[in-house]
Amino acid sequence: MQQRRVFSGMQPTGEAHLGNYLGALRQWVALQEQAECIFSVVDYHAITVEYDPAELPRRVFDMAVSFLAAGLDPDRCTMFVQSDVPEHTELTWVLNTVAPVGELERMTQYKDKTEGMESIPAGLLNYPILMAADILLYRATHVPVGEDQLQHLELSREVARRWNRQYSGGEPFFPEPQPVMGDAGRIRGLDGQAKMSKSRGNTVGMLDEPEAVWQRVRTAVTDPQRVRRSDPGRPEECNVFALHRYFTPEPELARIDRECRSAGIGCVDCKRMLAEGIAREFAPMRERAAEYRARPERVREILGDGAARCRALARETMQGVRERMGLTAWTEVPAGG
Ligand code: TYM
């Protein structure tokens, strides 16, 4: 068994939100102490939907700052921007030849994103192949992701199996990457329904200032059956309470649960406490973000070093891929034959 190597990626949506942090970044920070880790800002993924090219560089930079603010340490892990390593697209093409279209069409995210679209860009269908290439390019063994990416990861495993079977004589040139899940599952957005995501406008930013956190959290949907202040609440139905689990320590959490049920505490107070908890938890990260923002050249250097290291690893993998696929030996075809 090859040594443990971790890979994961995050789209450049600007500053990370609570879903990104609780579903993924938190695990990344822990994993960098335990294994060799590579983390990427995946800009090639971000261009599969409409976007403003003038804004993309800022979104990439802000996500990289979020990585560092969350506690990724360039001495303990490698971080880079996907498009700085062109082999990602090269391996994507190769894996295209073994990825089953039927399974791509069954991906939930693909179906959601293309619903009602008149003309579907092939990039949206092939998106999970790019993701498989990201992981397999580094022959990663473990991939920390939130629940919403598990289906894509399963496809990466299928692609690895198929390629190994076809080109590697069954020998696992590409390890089948295992998911690493935290305890967060799927973080719901402030609407209390959908997954928290920038495209749905239901996020709280990890690096938002306390007042901005409050302005967002105050709009959060609570238990829909609790209409009046005097109605007893149901914490298990309330997304504000679900979020409290991550930001409020135990004795306090039990008190909120009790007082919500007995209508002792109102939703506004409950939200105020949540907003304070969030702002408190991320205070050191806001500080770190400010330090990096003041030294953008340091951020560029970290990403540049990361890309250089990844390019070397990627070249090595692609060499192995080309050899096994008969893409190199044409130089050795003898004369006359
Ligand atoms: P992305 O950019 O949407 O999300 C990045 C990571 O954050 C997690 N996440 C969440 N977890 C729980 N609740 C939420 N509301 C929530 N929102 C986001 C995601 O599960 C993910 O782990 N295709 C991927 C990026 C990617 C990738 C990869 C990941 C590209 N290549 C290779 C792993 C390995 C994506 O769009 O994630």
Assign the CATH topology of the largest domain.
Rossmann fold
**Unreliable runs, pLDDT <50, ≥5 residues?**
none
Strand order, sheet with most strands: 1-2-3
User: CATH architecture of the largest domain, please?
Assistant: 3-Layer(aba) Sandwich
Structural class: mainly alpha
Morphology: elongated
How many helical stretches?
A: 14
Please tell me the overall pLDDT: 95
Instruction: Report the major sheet.
Output: 3 strands, parallel
The fourth-level CATH homologous superfamily of the largest domain is: HUPs
Q: What order do the helices and strands follow?
A: EHEHHEHHHHEHEHHHHHH
What is the percent of helical residues? Answer: 40-55%
Overall domain count: 2
What is the strand tally?
Answer: 5
Describe this structure in words.
The protein has two domains: 5-187 and 295-332, Rossmann fold (3-Layer(aba) Sandwich), CATH 3.40.50.620; 210-290, Orthogonal Bundle (Tyrosyl-Transfer RNA Synthetase). The protein contains 14 helices and five strands. The radius of gyration is 22 Å and the shape is elongated. The strands form two sheets. A three-stranded parallel beta sheet has the order 1-2-3. The chain is mainly alpha-helical and 337 residues long. The mean pLDDT is 95. The protein is 52% helix and 7% strand. Residues 7-11, 19-20, 23-24, 42, 45, 131, 134-135, 143, 145-146, 148-149, 152, 184, 186-187, 195-197 line the site of tryptophanyl-5'AMP.
